[in-house]
Specification:
- The protein is an alpha+beta fold and 113 residues long.
- The protein is built from six helices and three strands, in the order H-H-E-H-H-E-E-H-H.
- Strands 1-3-2 form a three-stranded antiparallel beta sheet.
- A hairpin with a 2-residue loop joins strand 2 and strand 3.
- Helix 2 crosses helix 4.
- The chain is elongated and about 60 Å long.
Length: 113
């Protein structure tokens, strides 16, 4: 289970538009991943800048890299993304007032009929 410190590090790693765009591109690519060149083409990010972003994402446990010959393939670590989402969602409604929960349940029940 992800703790506060680790969650903060992961959120910081995806806390810029370019890094979030890299993660999104890798999520869309699926388990096959993308080479550095493919990411550059899709996102128009210079090689040195992309390398910096990938190192940050890898250090946070959100991206993994694998060398295949002369190519480096990057893949999103889906378990890392899921853990980050679960960190927020496990707090869902823990402080909700019972009256509010009951009225939400009644409204939800009416809609499903």
């Amino acid at each position: 289970m992800l703790g506060l410190h680790e969650a903060a590090e992961r959120f910081a790693a995806v806390g810029s538009e370019p890094r979030l765009a890299v993660v999104k591109a890798l999520v869309r690519a699926g388990h096959e991943g993308l080479s550095v060149g493919e990411i550059q083409e899709r996102l128009d990010i210079p090689a040195s800048t992309l390398a910096h972003h990938l190192r940050s994402l890898e250090a946070a446990g959100l991206v993994e890299q694998e060398r295949q010959g002369r190519t480096i393939v990057n893949r999103v670590v889906f378990e890392g993304i899921e853990a980050l989402s679960a960190y927020l969602l496990r707090e869902c409604c823990v402080e909700a007032r019972p009256k509010r929960q009951a009225s939400v349940s009644r409204i939800a029940g009416r809609r499903s009929r």
